[in-house]
Prior knowledge:
alpha+beta
Amino acid sequence: MSALFNNRYAIDPADPKGNGGFGNTIGSTSAYWTSTQPYMMDTKSALGQDFNTGTQFMYDTTNKLNVRCIRTF
């Protein structure tokens, strides 16, 4: 996700918000899930990435965040 954030202008240079098309699709959040769990046995949290700020954070998996499938980057 960091690679996507760092290259967001190349992904969608026409995006008026400047976040590569990673817009606010659920409520008012620009946060997306990553596929990374912070600890091997921790099934209740995962890393998220905010595409407005670039911040990564641990989040409870019961919360709703955006997802975007990619094949390769």
